[in-house]
From TrEMBL:
SMART domains: HTH_GNTR (SM00345). SUPFAM superfamilies: TrkA C-terminal domain-like (SSF116726), Winged helix' DNA-binding domain (SSF46785). Residues 6-74 form the HTH gntR-type domain. Pfam families: GntR, TrkA_C. Keywords: DNA-binding, Transcription, Transcription regulation. This is GntR family transcriptional regulator. InterPro entries: Bact_HTH_transcr_reg, RCK_C, RCK_C_sf, Tscrpt_reg_HTH_GntR, WH-like_DNA-bd_sf, WH_DNA-bd_sf. Residues 120-205 form the RCK C-terminal domain. Signal peptide: none annotated.
Length: 209
């Protein structure tokens, strides 16, 4: 069963978003310098910087040069937390199904019911939440392998935002621009249906199926 490794900075980003939602941090408030945030949450300054970058990319906060970080939106902070929870719930359902397959204790009927539950949940989440991820495994002959997400400019070339990479038995959430895409990796990304086709063409070329 894959081991979920959620980057520390992503967890801190959720903690800061939670503080915004619960009004510990008010909209318009200037938060302390990153070093102070790092001390508050017991992490390094670099981890705090990455956490702030995640929230800034979602327009939840805005770094203000020389005066800390400004809180922009409680609603977007709430959406961020809801999406993180939905992602964890979906991953838990995947794990439960893999355990059922491995154990094979309750027979094909229960397995079919579990897959039906996953399908229902996936359809519900995707209809209610456009941030639900797609998955894609590049061809082993792709010339895009063994390169980082940032150097490939995946978002610029496909419109896809990579949210996780499954490598062997390790699931890396929010991998960031420096993570390499290796042979056999499963890429989880968010985007539109057109993005799925764009990802296939980008990694495998238009003639591969």
């Amino acid at each position: 069963m894959p081991k979920i490794k959620e980057p520390r900075y992503h967890k801190i980003a959720q903690d800061i978003a939670e503080a915004i939602v619960t009004k510990k941090f008010e909209v318009g408030q200037k938060l302390h310098a990153r070093s102070t945030l790092a001390a508050t949450f017991g992490v390094s300054a670099e981890t705090a910087r990455k956490a702030i970058s995640v929230l800034a990319d979602l327009d939840i906060v805005k770094p203000v040069h020389g005066s800390g970080v400004e809180v922009l939106s409680r609603e977007r902070a709430r959406d961020f937390l809801a999406q993180a929870k939905e992602s964890r719930n979906l991953q838990e359902t995947h794990s439960e199904i893999k355990e059922l397959i491995a154990q094979q204790k309750e027979g094909l009927l229960n397995l079919d019911q579990a897959f039906s539950l996953l399908l229902d949940q996936t359809q519900r989440v995707r209809s209610q939440n456009p941030m639900s991820p797609f998955e894609f495994v590049p061809s082993s002959t792709s010339d895009k392998l063994n390169q980082s997400i940032g150097s490939l400019n995946v978002w610029q070339n496909t419109g896809a935002t990579i949210v996780a990479i499954l490598h062997d038995d390790d699931l890396i959430l929010s991998p960031g621009p420096y993570a390499n895409i290796l042979p056999g990796d499963t890429i989880y990304f968010i985007g539109s249906d057109k993005t799925v086709e764009a990802m296939q063409q980008f990694f495998d070329g238009p003639n591969n199926n």
